[in-house]
Amino acid sequence: MRSIREVQTLPQTVEPSHSLESSALELPLPTKLPVSVIVAAKNEARNLPVCLRSLGGVGEIYVVDSKSRDETAEIASSFGAHVVQFEYGGGWPKKRQWAIDSLPLKYEWVLLLDADEALTPELASEIRSAVCNPGADGYYISLDMFFLGKHLRHSGASFYKLCLFRRTKGRFECRTKDQDTSMCDMEVHEHVMVSGKCARLKNSLLHRNVESLARYIEKHNEYSNWEARVWNTAESTHELRPAIWGSQAQRRRWLRRNFFRLPGSPVLFFFFKYILRLGFLDGVPGLIYCGFQAVQFFHIKAKIYETRLASQQVRLSRLCEFSKAEDFHVRH
């Protein structure tokens, strides 16, 4: 069963520590941005200060932590964020949907961020205007991806995600409820689905991950566990459908699904990202990024094979037991 535990919200009156990293952008806005920001975190002490410092002008911040072993919770508290602990025991909902459903959010609009993402003043100003538009219920925001200190301008590394929406209008798709603790405890490639009109913002989020490659590999191993489970599960009715003429998320899902069907798809995926999408123009970081993407593709396919092989062995075992039982009845 899924188990979720919320701890007492920490005080919001403590000023940020001056000893933390100081490379983020503050928002010199005259009034608070009427948005509830939810930051999903786990062992993000290195990334979190930059993220939270960029949110200095928003109405409220919730950091939903997963019992981090580092100073994630203390850092979040020092920036005046509400800190909530989340314990995942499998199933659905996962971290961010649980936060939307359970937290006493003050504002109508919700902005979902990862701990390695940050707002710019230009994006904050655009969001201020966007949430006043009565004709929109959600907004796609693009990511400027930085990997190993390099801004990746090619290989499809940057993309749009629907992360700003009215909380009564948006919910994450549920691709499968059959999930366990070997997988990431928050939504991986599950997308927000909004019942209403959506638009795109012009300015981008900054995505700068300063964690080690070992941590990157660790997280993506959990992602591939989830992907393999999804591929072995029948499509859900509450799922974003793959479509070549749909949204960017639908096109990316259509491409992944059709790539998976091809022999040697991890190699083809690398060729697509690194050559056709010009990943080689991003230098060594671009090569490593595209290589990791292809390796993860291979991991997913290998785990799909492993799962199907295990299922076949279980069926054969049951068939043998049934045959033995039938033979016993015939003899007696």
Strand content: 15-25%
Question: Could you say how many structural domains there are in total?
Answer: 1
What's the count of strands? 11
- Find the structural class using helix and strand composition: alpha/beta
Architecture per CATH nomenclature, i.e. the level-2 architecture? Alpha-Beta Complex
- The arrangement of helices and strands along the chain is EHEHEHEEHEEEEEEHHHH
**Which CATH first-tier class would you pick?**
Alpha Beta
Kindly state the percentage of residues in helix. Answer: 25-40%
* Low-pLDDT sequence parts: 1-24
The biggest beta sheet reads: 9 strands, mixed
Between the first and last Cα atoms, what is the distance in angstroms? Answer: 43 Å
CATH-defined topology: Spore Coat Polysaccharide Biosynthesis Protein SpsA, Chain A
Computed Rg: 22 Å
Overall form: globular
| Number of helices in the DSSP assignment | 8
- Compute the average pLDDT: 84
